[in-house]
Each structure stands twice: as structure tokens, then as C-alpha cells.
Design a protein that fits this description.
Structural class: mainly beta
Strand content: 35-45%
Shape: globular
Order of helices and strands: HEHEEEEEEEEEEEEE
Largest sheet: 7 strands, mixed
Helix content: 10-25%
Number of helices: 2
Distance between the termini: 53 Å
Number of strands: 14
Length: 237
């Protein structure tokens, strides 16, 4: 019996090898038996390939006029390589579509990742307390969005991205337990604990409905148990 072509694809083999290396490192360091001390990198935008693995969403998908773009920015003497998410928010309603009563949002997230020899590609961040983000924000009201293998496929767990120093690079920590379960933008009950063993996608959205330009730079997102450096800030909902 021959293996199917997708099992021999370079992406499949590369993802599988990465998972094997990660499991081997966990076994070697015995991190599964104690508190994890090594950061778990989730989205590293210093690698230009990562930005190509992300998708944008906005009210333009249903006829609105908000715009959003993702650009890969090379490292300079003063800034790390990063992904720039920028665009313009419009609250104008599409003509001849009376069913659309609300616009004014833009977002991005990583695309669903391909399978490995272990099955569906999911992040297990259960051994970690925090999601860490290295960002430079313009100070607008962004939300971090997390999708898991929830019973309700459309559930999104959200937390406000509280920038402490807009216009400057900083590291923000968000406790996984502080994320709030939502569905189609509304808080829903019961507030079940997030399935941190099965995280599917990460992203950031802007829903403040304030017309005008926005600009958010992201260098990396990772899971951690430690406050990393002097410009790291814990955020609370």
C-alpha cells in the first residue's frame, strides 16, 4: 500500500519532524513532570514565512469598506523583524444590503495548520500560564483571539490587548485563564474553561468601530511561565 501524496508533501514532513523534535526535547528535559521553563514559540514573525501563513478578515468580506493588510518588515538597527497589520476602519454600510446593520472591524489570524503524523496540528499550551506577545501598538482597542477545538466551532476566546507604551516595542503577558468565551462577538454562558490542550488559531482583531487608520506590529507570540524582561507587562481583563 502506498502512502497518499499529502503524507509525502514537504510541509507535512517538516511539521511532523518539528513535532518529533519538540516531544523529544520534552522527554529529555522532563518538562512534562515539572513546570515548563522553556518558552513555547507559537507564531514567530521574525521568520518571513509566518506572515504568509496568516489570513485577514474585515467587514469588506460582507460588502463593507474597512481595509486590512499584512506586511512583512525586515529587521533594522532599532526594530526586530515583524509583521505589520495596518489599514483603515470604516463604519459605512454597504448599499443595497439592508440586512447588514453593523460594520467597522478588521482582524487577522493564522490559517489552520496542516496535519502531521500525529494528526491535526494543534498547540498544547496547558503547561503554561501566559500567552506572551511582543508588539508595538498604536493604542487602539485590539483584542487577542484564540480558537480551540471547542464543542462550538465558532467560539472565540478573547482578551483585550492592553498596550502600556503605545508607539514602543513591549512584551505583554495575558493569562490563559483570563480569556473570555464569545460567539459572534457576544459573551456566552457557560464560561467553560478554555481547551488549552487544543489551541487551533491565534489572532488579533480591532472592533472599536472608530473610523480611521490603524497600525499594529507583532514580532512574536509564545507561551511562557515567566516574566521575561524589564519591559514585560502582565495584563488583566
Amino acid at each position: 500500500m502506498r502512502p497518499s501524496s499529502h503524507l509525502l508533501a514537504p510541509g507535512f514532513l517538516s511539521r511532523s519532524l518539528d513535532e518529533i523534535k519538540r516531544f523529544a526535547k520534552i522527554a529529555y528535559t522532563q518538562e512534562s513532570l515539572r513546570t515548563a521553563t522553556t518558552p513555547y514559540h507559537l507564531l514567530d514573525f521574525t521568520n518571513p514565512v509566518t506572515a504568509t501563513m496568516c489570513k485577514t478578515m474585515s467587514d469588506a468580506d460582507m460588502g463593507g469598506f474597512s481595509k486590512v493588510s499584512l506586511d512583512q518588515i525586515a529587521a533594522t538597527a532599532t526594530e526586530p523583524a515583524h509583521m505589520r497589520c495596518h489599514g483603515n476602519i470604516s463604519i459605512d454600510l454597504p448599499p443595497n444590503r439592508p440586512q447588514i446593520q453593523r460594520t467597522g472591524y478588521a482582524a487577522w489570524r493564522n490559517k489552520d495548520r496542516g496535519p502531521t503524523i500525529f494528526g491535526k496540528s494543534l498547540w498544547d499550551v496547558d503547561p503554561y500560564l501566559y500567552l506572551a506577545l511582543r508588539v508595538k501598538s498604536d493604542g487602539r482597542k485590539y483584542f487577542v483571539n484564540v480558537q480551540t477545538e471547542s464543542i462550538e466551532y465558532t467560539d472565540i476566546h478573547q482578551h483585550r490587548l492592553y498596550a502600556q507604551r503605545p508607539g514602543e516595542w513591549e512584551t505583554l503577558l495575558i493569562s490563559w485563564s483570563d480569556f473570555v468565551r464569545t460567539n459572534y462577538g457576544q459573551v456566552v454562558e457557560p464560561q467553560n474553561e478554555m481547551m488549552t490542550q487544543k489551541v487551533r488559531t491565534l489572532g488579533i482583531g480591532l472592533t472599536d468601530r472608530v473610523p480611521g487608520p490603524f497600525d499594529l506590529c507583532i514580532s512574536s507570540m509564545w507561551a511562557t511561565n515567566e516574566v521575561e524582561d524589564g519591559d514585560t507587562h502582565k495584563t488583566q481583563g
